[in-house]
Amino acid sequence: MSYYVGIDLGGTNIKAGVVDGEGKLLNKLSIKTNADRAMEDIIHDMGKLAADAIKDAGFEVKDIEAIGIGSPGTPDNEDGLLVYSSNLPFNNAPMRKLIREVIDLPVYIDNDANCAAMAEAVAGAAKGTKESVTITLGTGVGAGVIVRGRIYSGFNQAGSEFGHTVLVSGGVQCGCGRKGCFEQYASATALARMTKEAAAEHPESLLNEVYKEFGEWNAQIAFVALKKGDKVAADVVDMYTSYLADGLANAINAFMPEILVVGGGVCNEGDPLLIPMREKTMSRPYFGPGVPKTRIELAQMGNDAGIVGAAMMGKSCVDDGMNGI
Amino acid sequence: MSYYVGIDLGGTNIKAGVVDGEGKLLNKLSIKTNADRAMEDIIHDMGKLAADAIKDAGFEVKDIEAIGIGSPGTPDNEDGLLVYSSNLPFNNAPMRKLIREVIDLPVYIDNDANCAAMAEAVAGAAKGTKESVTITLGTGVGAGVIVRGRIYSGFNQAGSEFGHTVLVSGGVQCGCGRKGCFEQYASATALARMTKEAAAEHPESLLNEVYKEFGEWNAQIAFVALKKGDKVAADVVDMYTSYLADGLANAINAFMPEILVVGGGVCNEGDPLLIPMREKTMSRPYFGPGVPKTRIELAQMGNDAGIVGAAMMGKSCVDDGMNGI
Question: Where would I find the H helices in A85-230?
């Protein structure tokens, strides 16, 4: 068996662990990112955390094939750079070079949403398939595409920005500059906005009572009020799942994955979300008679997706003979 | 140099020719499809046309590596079938088997829009790139995606149906069953509809005069009236190019191709279409600073795209060691 280190770089925490060749996570360490530091300091700490993780798992550096890094933003895996990140102070950051000053292993870099998709494809909901798409419903809408067992992110490694495909032409302004992006209708943030708007229109709705329990407009309120029988909440969930399904069906028609993996905190709502999401999505795509249909599955890798996916991305680069030095 | 036969199966005509390994078309023959015949007769005629094309080009069967077929609908290239076509009477049609009853060569099958994309990638507007998307604006909106130099059509070979991704949620009813598909806003048919609607709203518009010259509502009328200075026509073209650009930007954000190829009869309108299409599309996608941008190019392969692309799809299958027998 061969072993890899996965590093999950986030705005708050840096996590790292050793992962075996089948995507099994052996251990996990975490430190604070302290994102207001100099870029060099953050990256050096990533290298040290990788070294610590190797030791903590009972291995030596020579037992490890490569380090894979999952980061927000757009990587350049050929030159070992993080070209751009909207969340971190990195501009053409020489990640490979700086990590290798700390630890002598090949280093590969990809986007965090792509790594999450790789984790699901190797060891999660899309295990055993060659073509899958993983959509994560969080603050935004993340998307990762696996084609022939490899991350597909376009010629510039900037894709897939499926969350920034327009679903409602001329609709809600998105932070990316476009109007009506899928993200503005399917993220947890979008559901919170829809809930707040419906509550304002319907002062009698239970939404306003449930809001007081939370103290903020979030993606859970509509589901709590729905369970209590609130009609306005049911309408909000119906509207949200309709937009969500329209966007998921778009992803199916664009990519025709064997499995469409859906994850993110919203999915914890269970059947009240999942049943209409599945039914509406599958009623929309464009399959001819006799043509195999995409299946929709829940993400399985949870918080470990970042580390496992980064490590398995690293493995795929080693397997493909990519230069990581 | 190795040689291939490409067959372009259409609802009206079947075309075939010999193509060299670099995508150069050496000759071209054509017969009527007569689509109301038995499926077996059509496919046998395709085999005979391939044999005739080989002879006509001065070759023998042994000089040819493979036959590639581009067909409307969803193929199963593993088993050599056409699973489904909305335009032709083919249901799980055993194309490989029937062609091979006529001519002893490996046979490969793919969708016609995918073959057009392959032609542009090998010998046309996207030559030299590994990642491209070709969008064809015709009666519908066709899409073909090239990933790592190969057609990408999903796990079921049914993709990419990018024309059937929703751009205007709840919008114009599409033949696929969804509402607001890109195809309903960017096809030549869509432009004709927008023109007709604007003319009815504005009886004073020149659109109504130009219509009389054509005798039907088509995609040219708005551009003819625009050149004569008609304000309503300018609004129609502005609306059409805005929707078109929104959908093209979606394709960029989804696939991040090095080149996005746009083709179809509408493109013959030249600058009045192309300038706003390019400007609006490039103002929309989501590239971070320093990230290489997709380029937009006009399709170059014209009517030969089907034959050349089918042949080059066949070549890629041979190169990948796929079984075509």
Answer: 95-100, 112-123, 183-186, 188-201, 207-214, 221-227
